[in-house]
# Entry
Amino acid sequence: MQYSTVDYQSIVDASHSLRLDAEFFRPDYLQIQHRLEEIGSRKLIDFQANIRHPKEIKRNYVDDGVLLLRGQNVRPLSIDLTANPVYISEEDAERLKENTIRYKNILIMRSGANVGQCAIYLEDSPAISMSDTLIIQSGDLNPFFLTIFFNTKYGKALIERGKYGSAQPHIAPPFLYQIPVPNCENLQTEIEKTYLRSKELTELSKTRYAETQTLLLSELGLADWQPTHRLAFATDYASMQQVERIDADYFQPKYEQIVNAIKNYPGGWDTLENLVTLKKCVEVGSKEYLETGIPFVRVSNLSPFEITQEKYISEELYGEITEHQPKQGEILLSKDATPGIAYYLRGIPEKMIPAGGILRLKSKTDKIGNEYLTLVLNSILTQEQINRDVGGSVILHWRPDQVAGTVIPILHEKIQVEIQQKVIESFNLRKHAKELLECAKRAVEIAIEQDEQTAIDWLETAS
# Structure
């Protein structure tokens, strides 16, 4: 049994809301608090930091406008804009000036399953934040250092300590203001250099990946193609009868232009069902979710570049459904909610179970490489076919038969190899970028456990 003995003054000093629950005063939390105080840390509020809670807003999306950041965009140490970014009008953004996020602001998830996840905003253009985040201006603290600290095991534990509410956990600004932060002036500079180097490598990775998309479209004669929505056009009854659809949007000419470009490619084409086997994954139900255990991968955890972890299931349940464990060389492809996100399992994956909104694809031909196929699935070629298939739906579901019928261009082997090399280079750059951030986290932990100079020396050799 673990227990802590604290006096009333400690309760007053530690909690803005006079929390009396034993969880708040767990021995491990108190040990971290004591160690940070021992090395001369100061409360966040003492660094003149400012925390804003954005207003709740009505979501009226537009095709082009001001970026709207949602909770799904905030990942640990990363603002993820790769999956389905959304925008609001300039007029709505002006009405929500208090929600504006600017360069070097820190975003931290205020509520929900990802409460406490934290990243720094490094985009040149301002954005608007939803109310499920908090916006932090770091004051006298280096924002890169503060972001890294919040992502260390010590920072995460202190944020975890401040969570309240069981069904929908929250953290509050008054608690965050009281968190002790190490006062490491020299290390802050080194952490910023490491963070910016990681950002540089990430941007280079994006450039390499964009080059592969350009190469793909250029080979199909679509380098300058832009999808255009037509208000009036004609089709024939036979075409409607063939696909068993009568809704006008399905027959938008832009979809036909994409399909024709693929089918007219000299190297040939095929449908996805002839290139891979498709296997549906499994739903376990929210009652099976745990805080730790075997990762249960949902569509929201999938991106073309990584798989994040958020929900978990027990070892026992995993053993019962282990046939759904993905294998090396397979591609995970989303079919629901945000259909068309593909992730290639290059190495042996850790234990995990993908949700029912995800398909497992396994190659059954040597006509096409997995790196290349994954790129095509993440490209506008596939996305426009998805838009055609699921158009008009409130909740998007890309049916397995529609997935199977997706047309894929079979580029010449030389082009496929060139694309594969660029994709691998892109992923290696991204991997190095993530390793640098892990080094930065470890350096801050060393500064807490030992001293600042030891952390600086370690970081210089490790990164």
Remarks:
- The chain has a mean pLDDT of 88.
